[in-house]
């Protein structure tokens, strides 16, 4: 399904490793590590429905919704067993919420505080156009990580400021010590429309060169196809792997192949392979309030190469093409609840995974 011209898509990229001496907070967008729980939330680590192993934390996204009084965090977990790769049943996505008053009640018990988010709830997810962006009001930062894109780049000045806070209450997750942990990285955010100014020349050019050699296509020529005749000629061509959906996927992300996350609340997913005919019917309604679920974000292939073990004495990995996350349209939440709500996701494998590493 193509992204509508009216949709705003936000792109997440890796923005440097998280210092082991500091702890991230629930309002930090990050890769790996352990989840950082909202103050009132308790979590028992989820297990794989296929092999019963504990699931490792993959990403954390702080994403309050427009006109909502709730802080809102989404955590995605996956099984690192090779036999479970590429299977939706080996993943889980959990949504957590709490009110500002709940956080204030717990502040006295924190040794390190995260600066209170001052952005209006209406600035978030109004058609997802302010996810992680500075718009006069932003999350204050104790420290901004080193910009992996480069200090002189125009886009880097727009990337999200990140804050530091206490970590997970591990007493609420007694199984966590036995679960493999991925290396922690910050995720910074930009609008897809800003990608014309994004340059990470060496890595980007290498990815594009490998892709063009493999598929026998020129991304530059594809992007210049503006006339109907040229577009029709391109669409009639067949990539070497024979998958037009994958070719379209590569074309869409060619300006930033290292994007690890695409966010578009109530937008359209970017499929890496042709979805089932009944794809829309595969997404179940919310099991708590019965409302429809909408697409919120997806994990991208470039994330795979970042998912290494935080323990230098062990090796873990994960393979997938893209992971599509759908959440309750109403983002329903029962007052006083302390347990995350499970949402829906499904995984598409990558036909050319090695070209993202």
The helix-and-strand class reads: alpha+beta
Helix content: 10-25%
Distance between the termini: 25 Å
Tell me, what's the shape? globular
Record the strand order, biggest sheet. Answer: 10-5-4-3-2-6-1-7-8-9-11
Total number of distinct structural domains: 2
GO cellular component, one term: cytoplasm
Protein name: Programmed cell death protein 2-like
Organism: Danio rerio
Domain Programmed cell death protein 2 C-terminal: 243-348
Describe this protein's structure:
The protein is an alpha+beta fold. The protein folds into 2 domains: 10-198 and 260-356, no CATH class; 203-254, no CATH class. 14% of the residues lie in helices and 18% in strands. It contains 6 helices and 11 strands. The chain has an 11-stranded antiparallel β-sheet with strand order 10-5-4-3-2-6-1-7-8-9-11. Strand 3 (56-62) and strand 4 (70-78) form a beta hairpin. The longest helix has 15 residues, at 201-215. The radius of gyration is 20 Å and the shape is globular. It holds the Pfam family PDCD2_C. InterPro entries: PDCD2-like_regulator, PDCD2_C.
